[in-house]
Amino acid sequence: MVEAPNFEYEYDSAFRKSFPARLSFAILAITTIVFVAALISYLFFQQERVKQETAASAKTQLHDAVMMMRLQTAEAQLRHDSLSLDDYARILQVVQPYQHSFTLLLNGEGQLVFASNPPFGTLPSDEQKHIKAIMGSRQGGMEEVLKGKGISLLIYEPVEGCDLVAGVVCSRVDILSAYEPLIVWGLVSFLIGLLVLFVACAIVIYRMAKPLHQFAESAVHIAEGNLDTPLPEIRSQDELKKLRTSFEYMQSSLKQHIEDLRKSTASQERLHSELVIAHDIQMGMLTTTFPERDDLELFAQMTPAKEVGGDLYDFIIDNDMVFFIIGDVAGKGVPASLYMAVTRTLFRSLAENYENAANIVREMNHVIATSSDTFVFVTAFVGVLDLRTHHLTYCNAAHNAPALMTKEGKCRLLEVEANLPLGVEDHYHYEEQQIDFPEGTALLLYTDGLTEAMYISGDGSRRLFGEDRVLHDMEKNKNASGIEIIDFLKQHVNVFADGTVQGDDLTLLFLRHGTKQKNNLTAPRRIIMKNEITEVSRMRGFFMSVCREHNVDEDLFKSLNLAIEEWVVNVINHAYPKGTRGHVEVTARVEGGVMTLMVKDHGIPFDPTQYQDVDIEADLEDRPIGGLGIFLVRNIMDTMHYERTADGYNVLTLTKQLNL
Fold this sequence. Notes:
Number of helices: 16
Mean pLDDT: 81
Number of strands: 22
Structural class: alpha+beta
Oligomer: single chain
Radius of gyration: 55 Å
Distance between the termini: 57 Å
Strand order of the largest sheet: 2-1-5-4-3
Helix content: 40-55%
């Protein structure tokens, strides 16, 4: 049974596990990634502008120093004097646009004559040469240098009139300092926005998670049958409002459905009760007390497909005259059962006034054809057997041809005129037929529920039981009683259908003229089983009844049952490939104090008599797997004989002296 979920609400759990929470966190993560990517992109595309802004102050100071050098050089020339390199260095030394910047002065030969800070001397020689080469071009401008150590800017300008080049280097630290305000304000803005978004998401989560939790809890209470469970109030006009409306509709629909179901169930219960009563009435109408006579054996049985059916059988014995009928009303259920009752009543009243089968059928047809405007027809077979003259007259009304078994045990279908069913055409002329019916002759009447019993395979193909199986089973059980023959046929139909639902009523009537067979203890008893292990219990009950009929003592019964059960289980488990449908047939006969058991299957060929006995005294690890079942059967029974028949059956025959 499925347990109801636990709905102890916790906000921290909802915040971590609910779908709105996961969605909000995803939005936060995406927003963070987008903002960081945008900031990096902005700094990347603004770096040139930042470099220009960083260099502006340095350019101005350097240009002022160069102009000062040029001015003092011009004044010295007017005085017919000259400035020393130290004079130029003092002018250039005041150029300090940034904390980490330093100035350089090259002469006309490209030699460094002044550096304001020691870091230039610590640079690798190739980088020093690169800077000198740039300044030696004497064109003036700005270049990126020292890229291996980060971006640095070299701003240089020639000093006209003295063959010198002055320059200033702005370090990476100075350049990045221009970014600091942008980065700081950007991060502050991002954190504030992230915090605001987080708070907004938390509010959304709490607003959505709590009513969703309440909806889930209400659904559990509704599932438990409390259809009046209150729903959370939703004031917003969004999906939650639609969800609440859907829940309200579900509650009202469930209430209406349960009310309709209650009424329907009550109605069905009344109908079922009425059908049970109708079933009991119908079965009570059928004769279940059969004659105890030496010159007549008669037994019949009906199994409806539903609670009530449209099949019928009946018989009347008047001294040495036996009137009998089997019929099948078109359709099933209550309407068919009503016409079944009418047909049976007509037969009983007409059989008292007519000794001719055709006249009985004609009068029944007239009444049924004129009694109702509804087109209903009945197939029927009516027979009259004179036990004194051994003569059978019969009339068929579109019913299945009965199976006739001679006293030698040969079976065939009785030759019948088809004729029309009862109720189709008034004043139809039904032909009567007759045959000699000597002692020992038997007749099996049946409805189409027997021959049209269906097996539906896994691929959808269909097979019918058919008349051939009926004749075969009768010949095989020729020495059995009528009860045993009918029981065997019903077993065979059940095994053949293999779970396919019975589609039609099944009615059987067996009649034999002469000495009854049911007290013949030498007659064989048979049972048919599916190759399913659950069938073993049926076989045990069958074998127990056989042993009781022959007064087999309890100890011997247990021993014999152990042997036959062992072999039947072996056949069920191994005779047929896994998943294959098959059957096992067991025949038991006791004659002359000897019990003969025959096990028959259509499975894989296997001859147990070819296997040697296992050494039961050997150690378990030295024994081969299997063989104990054959050893057990061989030691309990007196003889064991195997045969593989031409039609593909395995037949194992076992015998045991009973010493009765």
